[in-house]
Amino acid sequence: MRYWLTMRADALIYELDETFSSGEALAARLGVSRVAVHKRVRRLAEAGYPVASGPRGYRWRPGVPAPRPLLRRYAGPLLDEVVYLAEAASTQDAARELAEAGAVEGALVVAERQTAGRGRRGRTWLSPAGGLYFSLVLRPELPLAALPLVSLAAGAALAKAAGVGGLKWPNDLLAPDGRKLAGVLVEADLRGEEVRYLVLGVGVNFETPAQEGAAGLAEFGDAVRADVLARFLAALEPLYQSLPDPEAVLAAWKAHAVTLGREVRVHTPAGPKEGTAVDLEADGSLVLETPRGKRTRVSAGDVEWIGGFV
Ligand code: BTN
């Protein structure tokens, strides 16, 4: 299913790898002249793809989240096809387009930058070049009520893939000092109570963003985008396969959580709720306990730390 090749991409994107290929070899594989390859590489570079030329030919800059580097790092059921864009308004919309065109589970859209990246609750997700921005098409056979678990599973996989920080409910990845490193956005296309498909979007800062409260993965050691993405898929795979039995997902999430045991104020659609975050319910909702021992559950909202992240 290669409808997107003509839609928005150059076939060269699927031939380039992290090691050099000569212009001659690429030309033979694509059935074009060496001059045509050279021109196409130049066009990709102008569009913002991290492509390098040298005496030995052409290659991607090592570690970029391009199709071949990704497919070599992860060859499981959660990766079918990779659409690699220099720029997207939002990879969520591009992935939705793919899903609507019939893409199977594992269709992935990755962009070098986004001009209209979005986060949860309609917030903007700033997406300059250098970060990791991707959206994955999933087609789970799940009841609608199980969707929060997908989102927790994604958070747990992200924390494992990043190898640093912890999770703020439901799925923000925070640096050890509480600044935000990465976030997850799950959008569902529903028909009645049935999930037609999900678009699971992940944004990871690599360089430290200018906004207050944001951190970058590169602050914590060598971080390679293709490695993080592949590790994310590998970590998500068993959790996704264990759905809808929530136990494995809840345990994985709790193993990376920094929310439980803290005093929080959760801004829910029904207003703020306060208490100590003590547990997760089987449906993924957060359990708060007041000083008098009264327990309440919140199924959606934004967590704020009472007294800061200490
Ligand atoms: C959040 O923390 O609010 C979620 C942020 C999710 C951002 C990612 S970047 C890739 C994908 N495309 C988008 O427009 N958003 C998600």
How large is the count of helical segments?
8
* Bound molecule kinds, no repeats: biotin
Overall pLDDT confidence = 94
Q: How many domains, in number, for the residues?
A: 3
Report the end-to-end length measured between terminal Cα atoms.
Answer: 50 Å
Which structural class fits the helix and strand makeup?
alpha+beta
- The helix/strand order is HHHEEHEHEEHEEEEHHEEEEE
pLDDT below 50 for ≥5 consecutive residues: which ranges? Answer: none
CATH hierarchy, class of the largest domain: Alpha Beta
If you compute it from the alpha carbons, what radius of gyration comes out, rounded to the nearest whole angstrom? 21 Å
What is the fold named in CATH at topology level of the largest domain?
A: BirA Bifunctional Protein, domain 2
In CATH, the homologous superfamily of the largest domain goes by the name Bira Bifunctional Protein, Domain 2
Tally of strands: 14
Kindly state the percentage of residues in helix: 25-40%
What would your notes on this structure say?
- By secondary structure, this protein is an alpha+beta fold.
- It has 3 domains: 11-60, Winged helix-like DNA-binding domain superfamily/Winged helix DNA-binding domain (Arc Repressor Mutant, subunit A), CATH 1.10.10; 74-255, Bira Bifunctional Protein, Domain 2 (BirA Bifunctional Protein, domain 2), CATH 3.30.930; 263-305, Roll (SH3 type barrels).
- 29% of the residues lie in helices and 28% in strands.
- It is built from 8 helices and 14 strands.
- It has helices at 3-8, 23-30, 34-47, 67-73, 91-100, 147-162, 225-242, 247-256; strands at residues 51-54, 57-60, 81-88, 107-114, 132-138, 166-168, 172-174, 180-191, 194-204, 263-268, 271-280, 286-289, 295-298, 302-305.
- The strands form 3 sheets. Strands 3-4-5-9-8-7-6 form a 7-stranded mixed β-sheet, with helices on both faces. The protein has a 5-stranded antiparallel β-sheet with strand order 13-12-11-10-14, with no helix packed on it.
- α5 (91-100) links the parallel β3 (81-88) and β4.
- α2 (23-30) crosses α3 and α4 crosses α7.
- The termini are far apart.
- The site of biotin (BTN) has 20 residues, from α5, β5, β8 and β9.
